[in-house]
Amino acid sequence: MLQKSESGWTSGKTARRRRARRWPWALAFVALLAAGGYYYYGGTTEPAAPVMQTAKVELGDIETTVTAIAKMQPKNYVDVGTQVSGQLRTIHPDVGALVKKGDLLAEIDPTVYQTRVAGDRASLDNLRAQLAQAEAQLTLDKLRNERAQQLLKNQSGSKDAADAAEATERISEAKIDALKAQIAQTQATLEGDLANLGYTKIYAPMDGTVVSITAREGSTLNANQSAPIILRIADLQTMTVTAQVAEGDIPKITVGTPAYFSTLGLPDRRWQGTVRQIEPTPTIVNDVVLYNVLIDVPNADLMLMTDMTAQVFFRLGEAKSVPLVPTAAVRTARGGAQSVRVLTAQGPQERMIKTGLSNRSMTQVTEGLQPGDTVIVGSGAPATPRPAGPQRPPMPPRLG
């Protein structure tokens, strides 16, 4: 079968042979294109050198601290309770009220205690009347005993009568002593009941602010089992911050160590204080040993409140206007010698230094460096590799 081509008429078998010879050349062309692209875009790139992270030695301030989370309570406070049982009739102040020492705070129904006092007084009056009667009887018995003894002396009376008169006098004296003891006992009972009656009115034991009221008017208070708490009075002018410090940091802190803290509500404000006390008995939370460190701070503006959370910083040391380098740049050998790598015109050089205060970010340099020196902090990731230069891929062979 004949087919028409540009050169003329050819047979079908001849055309198929020509198309079969072109396929290898097409595959070779695609492969050369791929090789040329790799050669141009990545095959001739040079490895990039790592980028050095550097920092200048600068003058600045540094401090070393120990941090802890803390809660705060008033330094002086008292829980006001009741010493007697009964129905709570009235609570006079509200929460937040300022009270003075001796102000009436609450009243308990006094009816029971008034009744007891009245009964004690009636018993006391009865005993006193019996004492007066016994004293009059004693006077009579003394006269009868004197007459009986005189008759016995004059041999006008019998000895039995004289002995009986003397015994009667002694019995009267004993009755008087017993009545006096009963009177003293009743008097003591009366004084106790009067005190209980007085306890039905509860007065402020100190100046301060009523920070909480735990009882309610009309409730019955039972003082026989435990002392019921009615309210709490606190002096909010001075607060105590109780910080929990881990056992690894507690040896660094002593009484008098300066500290500062801020609260969650006022993170930009800083309160200052010093350590007043380190409690020797720890608390264990999730197998972590924590010691309570107490700090007193004035609170004249009453911005600090009970149970606020604070972050405390105990200042262990500080220095101002000293040469500082990043802590990550300092190398410490096994023997304790310290050094840094300094970037100079001749390249990086190792230099021995002496350091002072140090924290997680910065370290004070006392010898070996001057402000303005450049130290190497570390090596960062290499820059993105770039080709050395554009390369033209080889030309593919021309298909015939």
Determine the oligomeric state from the structure.
single chain
Radius of gyration: 51 Å
Helix vs. strand class: alpha+beta
Mean pLDDT: 85
Low-confidence stretches: 1-10, 388-400
Largest sheet: 6 strands, antiparallel, barrel
SSE succession? EEHEEEEEHHEEEEEEEEEEEEEE
CATH topology of the largest domain: Helix Hairpins
Strand order of the largest sheet: 4-11-15-13-12-16
**Coarse shape:** elongated
Number of domain modules: 4
Q: Which percent range fits the helix content?
A: 25-40%
Total helical segments: 3
For the record, the CATH class of the largest domain is Mainly Alpha
Number of DSSP strand runs: 21
The end-to-end distance, rounded to whole angstroms, is 24 Å
Share of residues in strands: 35-45%
Return the CATH architecture of the largest domain.
Answer: Orthogonal Bundle
